[in-house]
Amino acid sequence: MAEFPARLGIGQVAERTGLSVHALRFYEHEGLFVNPVRRDPGGRRVYTEDDVDWLTVCIILRASGMPLPALRRYTELVRQGHGNEEQRLALLREHQASVTDQMRKLTECLDLVRFKIGVYEDLLDQPVADRRCHAASDEDAPRLASARATH
Amino acid sequence: MAEFPARLGIGQVAERTGLSVHALRFYEHEGLFVNPVRRDPGGRRVYTEDDVDWLTVCIILRASGMPLPALRRYTELVRQGHGNEEQRLALLREHQASVTDQMRKLTECLDLVRFKIGVYEDLLDQPVADRRCHAASDEDAPRLASARATH
DNA sequence: CTAGGAGCTAGAGTCGGCTCTAGGTCAACC
DNA sequence: GGTTGACCTAGAGCCGACTCTAGCTCCTAG
How far is Cα B93 from Cα A114, in angstroms, rounded to an integer? Predict the structure, then answer.
């Protein structure tokens, strides 16, 4: 079970992570790798599985809207090693707050969209003759004031 | 109960919606208003409450990542009036799918962040002496392979 | 009558996050 | 030995969604 390090080329890493080779070089340039990326004798980048794992984390954080500067700060803290756990924790908590806020907004939107979809589905269920003027039955609309309009 | 139309200036609309006056002019230029924005004798924009309601919808859709072109298409459908409800429905369903997908990604991120926060909280709870080497207790890590690393 | 404030237009600038180009190196195969 | 094909660097370009600027008009208050 002797694990041998598995050294990957940039193309392989691109394929595994879904990032482009351009993006990988860009991320390196932006300081998003915990360890400096090694080079082979020809000057080509050589990545490890650890790099791929770290990139996976980065991708998830990016997909949840963490900006590159924050990701860089976090990377730097990890690179520095033990002793700054409070700072990492603070950064993570901040991002957690941002994510839950995004989810709140998305939920609000989903309510609106579901309401509107319901309106249109009902409308399209009616026999064609009955359609059009229907605008006044606005009474029991949900609290989303803006959703009242039948647009 | 005779509602009188309440004509608003661009500054008032900006204040109510949270959009900048620049953004309001920009949105108009981009065709995001259902009805053409009226002007007073001096050429200034005059908005109605309906405009503000519509903007509120736009803001929610934008905040959930709907791009301006999609918002413009939807606006155009509404502007055209009855007869294109299927298309509106299709557009809304598409956006609904996009929103639920975003929520899926955010949930994944939240799992990761919560896990890491947990790790750091535990770590900081330990008496200082016991800290550092702790890296090998990776057994029962959650399925998120990438979350295993104690970074 | 003039100073301030809100509004106008057209168009330039900004920012984040890549993406692409130009011009080159290197190793492997036919 | 010529041709791929993967990789390299530095830097330019792009896209979306605003944001800002310059130079103007208009209204109101003092």
Answer: 9
Whether residue B151 contacts residue A120, with contact meaning beta carbons closer than 8 Å, is answered with: no
B-chain CB neighbours of A111 within 8 Å are: none
H/E segment holding residue B98: helix B85-125
Cβ contacts from A onto B, under 8 A: 127
Nucleotides of C under 7 A from a protein CB: 6-9, 11, 16-21, 26-27
Of B60, B50, B71, the C-alpha closest to B7 is B50
CA distance A34 to A72: 9
Q: Which helix (H) or strand (E) holds B103?
A: helix B85-125
- The structure's pTM equals 0.86
Q: Which two tokens stand for residue B85?
A: 């409800």
Three-class secondary structure of residue B129 per DSSP: helix
Nearest to B96 among A89, A92, A110 (CB): A110
> How far, CA to CA in Å, does A119 sit from each of A141, B75, B135?
11, 17, 55
A83-125, pLDDT tens digit by residue?
999 999 999 999 999 999 999 999 999 999 999 999 999 998 8
Q: Do B89 and A124 touch (CB under 8 A)?
A: yes
User: What is the distance between the alpha carbons of residues B4 and A135, in angstroms, rounded to a whole number?
Assistant: 19
Give SS3 for B46.
strand
- Tell the residue number behind the tokens 């924790």, with chain if given: A89
CA at A126, C1' at C16: how many angstroms apart? 47
Q: Which residue has the tokens 């080329």?
A: A9
